[in-house]
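Q: I have 565 residues here and want to know how they pack in 3D. Can you give me a structure?
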Amino acid sequence: SITAADKVYDGNTDAAILTRTLSGVIAGDTVTYTSGTAAFADKNAGLDKTVTATGLALSGADATNYTVNTEAQTIADITKASLTISGLAANNKTYDATRDAVLSGTPTLTGVLTGDSVTVIGAADTGIFDTKDVGTDKPVTANLDSLTLGGTDGGNYRITAVTTPLTADITALGITGNITVENKVYDGNTNATISGRTLSGVLGADDVHYTGGTAAFSDRNAGAGKMVTATELELSGEDAGNYTVNTEAQTTADIMQAPLIVTASTDAKIYDGTTSSSAMPAITGGYMIEGDSIAMKQAFDNKNAGEGKTLIPSVIIDDGNGGNNYNATMATDTTGVIGKAPLTITADDKTRIYGNANPEFTGVITGFAGGETLSMSGVAGSALYTTDAVQTSDAGTYDIIPETGTLSAVNYRFDAFVKGSLVIGKAPLSVISDDKTKFSGEANPAFTASYSGFTLGQTESVLGGSLSFETPATASSPIGNYPITPYGLTSGNYQIAFFDGNLLVNPPPSLQDEINAVVVAVNNTATAGGVKEAIIFFGKDNEEDTQSKEGQDAGEKREALPYCN
């Protein structure tokens, strides 16, 4: 008997005799079972296939003493020949937390024996990565179970692997990280505190966390819904390497105004027409951030005088944001005092003439504050002005005394009074010498005068001194006009002006007829024509008295005579 060796399908029936066994050989004989060839019943793969050996023979020293079957049968296996698949490629993929792979390409058989008819049926489009994790050139095992073999000889083969090992990349999955940030009170910087972190897109139960990073507001100023940007964010955890995430994230949060309380200080002043206060308010709550500055002032709630006045603080904050980084509360003070401002009443100086009634007295009020005038000051009523002078008072200077009268004011008091002066001037009085006449050679007549300007029903009896006259004319003065000059009177209440009269000295009666004859002759000559008028004055040649007097021209023309050329 024989045994045959199993073999891998090789397209023929050849079989290899593995062992040879003889039964019945006598002990001690030398006999061997040799020679012969073996063949499978057919070439096809199968189990326990019949193998027939022929041409078997005996050999050895005692071989001729025996006979043996020259043909023997046994069984052996023809296992399917292995084929590999080419033409496939593993696709790269983005991490999906599985080992699943996708294959592409058309499977092609490699290893089919020449002359065999074998086809591949089905598609090889799936596989499996060595691990689920991210990596490059990762081994991929193709899933060939979906492939079958067809063709006449397809049953003799099996697909065992791909011709060339497959590899592909698993790239990290991009996920989205988000943050939340705490609101804060203005502190002069952009620092923000991350209060929460979330990841969107993490697969299954992967261990991934959003960590690290620092956050900052877009600027330091107070405001609602302000942009906050976090940078240098990263992933941690066992599966962090399989993901990528945004290292920068944005959100919004509030920077609330810093609280500040500014309280007014008490103050007292004299009314000045304004609400200004020289005292300074103080910060009584909160504080200014380093680098910011504050200018504080305060003012009365109104300008009017009074006690228990309200003082209101105000501020200008320089924080680079128009003061809007602070919520400044203004706390008032109600103990302020504005005292009434002093005014001065000054009586105006007045004048009048002796004997006239006193004029209306007036005055000015000065000391108004803040550019105010009387009309806008709220002063009501009128001042009172008095004097000792009456209509009959002598010429001179008298005090005009101002008093408060009915004046009143909310913001002013009347503290100072300045007297004015009433000057009573002398009344004008004219003393006019009366005109007189006389004949040449006579003594001067008695001179008299008339008066113009007395007031209060007075007469010359109130005058001082004595009335006297002077004239250049004497008894021997030639004919002509001569001034009569009055003088000598005095008065404390009258300003006396003296006006000359005229003393006409006429020719003596004995010359009158001669004069008349000359006049007639001149008139007759003038009628004949060719006569120039001649003015003949008796007395001083062409001398005119320029002293004016009431109702009479000075230098009176007495006679006019023509004279021939």
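Q: Anything worth noting?
A: The CA atoms of residues 176 and 434 lie 133 Å apart. Helices lie at 512-528.
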